[in-house]
Design a protein that fits this description.
With 173 residues, the protein is an alpha/beta fold. The protein is built from 6 helices and 5 strands.
Length: 173
């Protein structure tokens, strides 16, 4: 997924994504699941929900396996999608993964067949136009960092207005 296969992304999960999950969402696919923290948070809220993840990191993989109902080691850009435990998912989550990909729209299209009709796609990307980064840019600072909006592994940058255009509207083409 454009990430170093030795990378470990672990945190408390993306709480902003949780507001879009309901108890009716029984099968969730978390693309770029990291160490499975978001799935673990979802499962703590809805114990009957099954969360399956895909990561490209050999370091994250065993941790995510223990936090999720299933985890697969694959590069969603280069590899075939592994045989998943559900034919259709209620939700597919792309939380802070699309900015790491060379062709995020192609990956979304590749995974949409796994979404049930009426299902949800949840996308979370960092906003390059937040005030802190705008301020730094105004001062002429454009420095990559180990994490955050300016993460050195980000290949793409989005704002509140460009993300829908580049990620959602582009699906129509």
């Amino acid at each position: 997924m454009g990430l170093n296969e030795q990378t470990l992304y672990s945190n408390a999960g993306n709480s902003s994504v949780l507001q879009y999950i309901t108890e009716d969402d029984r099968a969730i696919l978390d693309i770029g699941c990291g160490a499975g923290d978001l799935g673990k948070a979802i499962r703590s809220l809805y114990s009957s929900t099954q969360v399956v993840g895909i990561t490209s990191s050999r370091v994250e993989y065993p941790i995510a396996q223990s936090n999720l109902n299933g985890c697969y080691l694959a590069d969603v850009e280069k590899d075939q999608i592994p045989s998943l435990p559900f034919e259709e998912f209620d939700v597919i989550i792309f939380s802070h993964v699309l900015e790491h990909l060379v062709d995020p729209v192609k990956v979304i299209k590749k995974l949409l067949p796994y979404l049930k009709i009426g299902g949800k796609v949840i996308i979370a990307v960092p906003n390059i136009a937040n005030w802190r980064d705008r301020w730094k840019l105004a001062l002429g600072q454009f420095e990559y960092t180990e994490s955050g909006v300016m993460d050195k592994t980000h290949l793409r940058f989005y704002t509140f207005h460009t993300a829908p255009r580049y990620l959602i509207e582009a699906l129509k083409n």
